[in-house]
Task: structure prediction
Amino acid sequence: MASGVVEFIAAETEADKSAVVERMISSMALCPASFLRAGAETHPQVITGIITDLGPYIDGEASMVDCQKALVHVSVNIDVLLVSVLVEYLAKRISEAGDVQIYRAGLQEVAKSLMTLSQMTKKFLKPHATLISEAVFELPEKMTLRDFPIATRLSLLELLQCLLDLYLPALKRSMGPKFVDGVVSMASLEKSPSCLAILFKVFEKLGLEWDPSPSECEEMFGSFFRYFPITPSSATNLPANDLKFLLQNCFKSNNNYAELAFDAILEKLDSDVSANVKNDVFDALCGCIETYSIPVVSRYSLKIWDSLKWEIWNGENEDFVNRALVTVGAIAKSLGKQRVDWNDPSNECSKFIGHVAKECNEILHDDSKKRFILRSGRILSKLVMSSPYGSTLVTRICLPGLITLSQALTTLSEKTRFIELMNLILEAHFECGKLEYVVLQQDLQPEDVEYRSRCLAAMDDSFGNFREGLVEIYFGSMSDASSDVPIRKLAIKGLTFLARMITFSNQEPLLSEFERGTVLSKLNETALDFNQAVELREVSVSCLGSISVEDPQAFIQFTLSNFMSMFPDALDFKAGAESGLSRAIWLLDSLIDIACTSTCKAELPKPIPNVKTHWKFRLFDAMQAELIEKLVESISKHSNQQPYQMAVLAGIYRALETFDKALLYDESLGNKWESLDPTFHPYAWIVTNLFRRCIGLFQHQEGPLKPSWYVGINDVVDGEVLDDAFVTLIGTIATYVLRSHTTSDKNNFLLKANDEHPEEPSRIWTLFNFGAHTRSGLAASQQHLRGGPPRKCSSIILSTALVAGLRKDARERMKIQVHETAKSMILNAIDMETKCSREARTSMLQLMQLLVNKFGADRTKFEDSKYLHDIMIELVTTAPSPRVYQTLAYFSAAALAAYEPCTTQLITLMMERISDPKYGRKIAQSFSILLAPSPVMSEANFCTLRPLRFGRLYSLTVDYLVNVWRSSGDREVKESCLIALGSVLRYMPAKNLQDNAAQIFSVVLAGTEVADNSTKEACMNIMIVLMPGNPSLVEEHLDSVINRMTERTHNTYDCPSDATVEGRCKALEVLAILPSIVRTELLIKRRNGVMKELDVALDDCSREVRARADKSKMIWFNLVTIEA
Result:
């Protein structure tokens, strides 16, 4: 021990000191007559001996440095000794648990304690890992582990896993095969999924790092493979796929398992097993192929092929066929990873791919096996995709014979099958080349780059030898007049692959420029020939899209110009232009599918100068520019073209929406793009171009604002003014652009323009009209809409759209006084003299909502110290009118959604006015505005929609309205209360309704006979929600429910129903629910009456009502009579 002290004092590093302490403690622990055997009473003697040995270093003339080192030695030894004492004691409890009954108690806690101690790597001695492992392994020898609870077994297994993770080398040296035997014994009877999950991880670790001998591999494989395939019960918390994955990792963990695994898996595959089991077997087989070394896979490759080929050729289950094909492809891909000598046909890759390709090639030329041709083509496609070498082997073996075979085909079915086969090979070759080219762009070693480049060039040369034959096959198929739709569809797809095909080593097109032009011309001709079958036109459009994203120049020069030339200048709607409009819509949809469903993948050969958009936008920009030009031309030159112009504008919007989603998806894949100018917005030009054509600058000709300037909607041909629906759609486009993921603080074109021109009116008012920017007083003029003119009122639609697209933090940069503007919109909306459309008036109210909800217009005081809601209340009090109450409802909805303090005051005012004999019903109907989904005040437009608004509105309104309904003797007031309640409850979440079912059920039932169709239908919808969860309430009101529903469904010539078609359908739906929730004996008594009314409904004039009545009658007819 004294020598150990000397070594410790002389040690320089912490690692050296730890090694000295470990040797000292280990020598004591492993000495037969010392520390370990003597027990706790020996420990003080050991400590005393250490102190004695340290005497020269801590007493007398010892140096300060030596003294400090010596005392550290004491501290470390004590820590290690304490851990050793605990480990030995706890290990003893585990090892003797089979003999001493008391030791079985708390075994789980013992295991957890030992795991904690073992993780103290600086204090835990490596030999103790062996001590603990041996103790655990004694349990299966002395008793059945299954006698212990699952939690205890799980803790023991987790302890073993921890020891293996931390001390594997020490365990392997000290225990060797005994550790493997112990783990196998632990697994012998285990069935618990949670325990098996740990066992599988232990087996995986042993396979990966233990370097087991062949006998150990065989022993472990037999232990875990007996669980394959595993299907844990649904009671376990562990996902089934996790357990399957862990088990598969076991036999993928070591190459030595291959001999056992492949034979066992293939035996399972050949046996009669369920579909789920077979899928697991395929997954395991594919996993082994992808994991095992290439020599191992090669050794079993042909055996696996022999087992799978008949599954592929004869299989009826398409899922199994696909999985078998994936497995064949995995073999080829695994073998293709190694470098091979292309001139040596004896390499491992060539043996497998060559064998399989030749076997498939024989089938392609065997007339007796025609049914196997397409399946063989799918096999060949997997081989081709595996690697450039695999592609070249298949090309050399199969293509010469196939090109010759094409000339001997006579029947249509043979030709169709042949073209489909060739398409499979072409597509696979194309994908293989693309993938390999992508790999070459990565950071590879020089020798890897040289080898892969050589392989890619050789693949290109081999495939290029058959270019003329392939061109002849496909062009011949397209020109064959006898060809039907299926073969022409396949030929179009094949031609597309040829047109897209390149020599991947130098990125040059496979076809000549003339040949590519011919393919494009044929695709355009087919797509635009409305006499062709729809299927042919659709597949041509799809193929044009594939070519265009890779060759934007071809799209701009050929496809786009061809499609645009098909758009008419104008449609004669008086003569019936429905077919022309349908064609225009089809052209728009097709262009969007070609240019917008995917981002552009290449730049133009000659980039456009001074263009700031990224090359991903090339197709989209070109198409949008043409559509906007067509729209502007139509507006400028042709009258009475609103439907056609709306269709083109809708196409512009859909193109924007589709491309923006494609761009976002592209970014999600990691394909980020950056604009050369971060202040440039890629979509802004679309909005500004549409605005400039849509609006103009005018002078007031009368009224108090004469002769000031204002921005209004432009005239079109012959004095027409653009329809407000058209203007609204332009506004929708502007909103979408502003809230697009491409919009940032730097490139927000609206805010940026405001920032750059602080002296000019906000672009919210000028709407990007050049002349309007310099007109003084325009901002005030634009907000004053009372008295019109109509074109000025309609411009507010666009201003609202711009505000809708802005985020909350844009308040200061908008350059408007939000509370003043909101006040102006309130006054504009309530003015009875304002000449404007419904869309324009609605936009005034929506702009007010946005300013209140999103920008806090009600939180700023006016000069007279009033808030915005004070002005609203004053208007209701002093000048009540339908428009004032409508404005109040819009204001209240915005405040409620944002949880503004004024909400209670405003909604209380609405409730108090329900009893108004003149406006009470209108006010009650306006309650529907409070929770109704808004196209403008939405989360998409960055508004605040608090979830608590539902509960708050319920607590504010329902109790009050129910009390007024019950207490009032005025029929009109009672109806108004029911209308208001229906309006409030119709948009409530189901949970809020269910939680208050007892309070509202009778009220809702009464609402089903109110003389207001909207309320009737809302109340019946609420009943449909409430009934399934409240059968007792339904039974309590059963007769009322049946009577009121049959009153709605009864619709005859002499006694017409007071409900709409939708209302009658809802009533029948309520009746159909009753048998599923109400006791049968209660319904039997009422069945005859209900069946009679259902018979009446079966004669309803509406087909939808008759269909509902038929279903309801069948449900009631099937009621079972319950004997007393």
